[in-house]
Model the fold of this input.
Amino acid sequence: MAAAVVRGLGDPDWRPAEACLRVAVRHELSGAAGPATLLVGHPLPRVRGQAVRCLGVVGDTEHVDVVVGLLDDADPSVRRIAAGAVARVARRLDRPDLERLLD
Done:
């Protein structure tokens, strides 16, 4: 299942990609982090939001800058999700310095 979900993140249609991001979050599929990084630049805010949520759950140290970068997204819903993702990454990776970005 995990391989199919990760492949689905590369689907050119946004709906399967977004659905695969949701599944990756629910099942904490670490292999989804790389493809999710590519989706944070998607034109649709709902896809960017799911991508940053996914990185909050499964991302590692190399994804921190991407997650933090979405705190300045043009869409307020993406900024809100990014704040939650930063908080989660800070806890998971023991990075209290990241929590200061949320003050």
